[in-house]
Structures are given as C-alpha cells and as structure tokens.
Amino acid sequence: MKTRILLxxxxxxxxxxxxxxxxxxxxxxxxxxxxxxxxxxxxxxxxPVKNQSRTGTCWxxxxxxxxxxxxLRMGKGEFDLSEMYIIRETYIDRLKDNYLxxxxxxxxxxxxxxxxxxxxxxxxxxxxxxxxxxxxxxPTHNHSELQAFIEAVAAVPVERKYESPQYHAIxxxxxxxxxxxxxxxxxxxxxxxxxxxxxxxxxxxxxDYVEITSFTHFPFYTQGVLExxxxxxxxxxxxxxxxxxxxxxxxxxxxxxxxxxxxxISEKWFSHAKGVAIIPENxxxxxxxxxxxxxxxxASGVGLKEIEELSKPGNELKITQEIRQxxxxxxxxxxxxxxxxxxxxxxxxxxxxxxxxNSWGTDRNPFEGxxxxxxxxxxxKTLFIMVHKNxxxxxxxxKLGIK
Length: 403
Description:
The protein has twelve helices and 13 strands. By secondary structure, it is of the alpha+beta class. Helix 2 crosses helix 4 (113-123), helix 3 crosses helix 4 (113-123) and helix 3 (83-100) runs parallel beside helix 5. The strands form two sheets. Strands 1, 4, 5, 6, 7, 8, 9, 10, 11, 12 and 13 form an eleven-stranded mixed beta sheet that branches. A two-stranded antiparallel ribbon has the order 2-3. Helices cover 39% and strands 15% of the residues. The protein is globular and about 60 Å long.
C-alpha cells in the first residue's frame, strides 16, 4: 500500500507541472475578443454632427460641414450654416438644366460637392437660424412630398416648350411652402446681412477648392468628367494616380486641412452602426466580377453581427489601381454618399483609418455619428475628394497645373 501511495505522489509531482504549463499555454486562446482600439494621429476641428434625415442631400450636409471646418481653420469661429438654403437655390438651377435637356435632366435630390460651391458663389448663404428649411410642420427634414411636386411641376414647361412667368411663380411657391421664403436680409449677431453680404463676410473663395479623382479611363494630370448621375452639371475633376490621391489626403490632414469625400458605401464591410469601414483580405474585390458574384452569393445570408472582420482588426486587401478601376467599370463602386473626413486614427495593429463625420445624426451609432474608414476602403471606394488647393503637395499641384 505504501508503495502504491509513493508511486501516486511521484506521478503527481511529474504530471502537475506539465498540466500547469498546458493550462498556462491555452489561456490566450480565450474567446474574448479585443475589438477595435483606435488611437488618434490627427484630429482637426469640426462642428457638431447634423442629420439629413429623410432627404438625399448628403452632398450638401458634407460640404457644409467641410466649409464650417474651413472657417474654423481660418480663425473665423464656429458657424452653423444653412444646408437648406443651398438646396433650395440648387433646385432652381437643376430645374433650368432639366428644361434645357428637354426633360432628361437629373431632378433628384442628389448632388456633388461642386454644386455647393457654385450655389455659394452665385447666391451666397445664410446661417441655419435664418433659414432652417422646416416650413412644413416637421421637426426633421423630409423631402419625399417636395420631390414629388418638383418632378410634377418640371414636366409642364418641357411639354409646352416655354418657361412662363407663372411657371417660375409656381416653382417659388412650392419651394416656399416646404422650405420657407428666402430672407432678403436678416440680422446675425447684431449685424444686418443679405445672403451675398454674409457669404462675403466669411472669406471663403469657391475657386480655392478643387475636386480630385483617380481613374484610368482618362489621362492622369488632366481633367475629365465623372460619369455619375449626380454630376448633373457635368463638372470636371482633376485625375491623379491612386497613391497620389492618398498622398494628397495625408498631406492635407498633416497641414491642418480637412477633406470632403464622395464614395461608395454599399459594401457589406461598411458599417455605420459598428463605426468602421474596411476591405478584408478575403473580400473578393480582386476577383473578376463573376467570381466575386459567386462569392457574395455564398455569403448572402451573413448579417453584420456575423461578419467576423467587423468585430476586430485583421488583414486587409491591398488595393491596386486596377482593382479600383474594375470596381468603377463593373458598377460595384458607385456614387452613394458624401461625408466629411476630419482626421486620421490607427488601430492596435497600426492600420491607418480616416475619421469620418457622417450626416445621419448622433443616435444611429455609439460613436456620436462618426466612423473610421480604413485606408484600403478609401483606396477602393473613393469617387473623388474635395480639398483646398493649398492642401495639395506642391509637386502634385505643379503636375496638375494648379496655381
């Protein structure tokens, strides 16, 4: 018996360290996920997040936010500018364009950043307190009925081949009914302004801002038209190689300038709710369209909560100029949304992301309306950016012929 007891003790002495070592080795395999942890690299000044609500006017909200950050950068102070003033005046130009195109113009609510700058230069602007655009008994913006009336009214002069004075009066009445009458003058902080004199007091020059893209179907270092429906005014964009587009963005942030961003948010790895947008290594964006479609079909039942890549950082796809161009030409990269980029962060793996101010209010995600888009996502899904011309590296600026 004593011999058996002695043998058991010896076995325990031998086995115990091995078991302890095995337990210690297995501990890191815990299912507890670390999640995304971001640290700030650059964080530039921005005004509070707003809510475009039930309107397709992200272009105006993003560019207004961009302009407000420019005023902060210039030392002008914090302003809350009226998005709806710009939207109302843009409707006038859009209706004229539709008439001259014999009813084939784009009357939808969408637009691009240059539409804001053109309206600002032509019509001026007012503070939001002077023109909220909420003249229809709603606490939030909802343009569904307004849009229906715009489209109905626009058809009449096209059919009659004549823009009568009564037609213009009806257009004004529709816009007044929903958005309110434009003030001829208003008092702001004790000073009386008109929309034009107020815009002049801000010191923003629309000619200082340029839009830049990166595609291969027109030559680099030239200007070309982006063939997207919301480019209804047929504006031209400067074109640079993809690496230089990212270089411009990084130079801009490092020199105190924010970036206005237009791109595609239709990928399932874009999640405003989770506050991240990524392009995982296994995304399939580097595959031909048919292979990618099969991959997407096989994963079609996966919801955002089940997408592992959105729960913690991982490897991302290296985006080339070819991948980017393919996405544009097979229509998987589309002109969906404008947002305002206000800084740079990095995750615990050192991956760079761009801090993004959205216009969907502050209660649709836990991050006060912001999200972080990875560099891979931005490389793949950017349609164009708008920046101050002094936010472009001098060598690239010279190549583009910008003075």
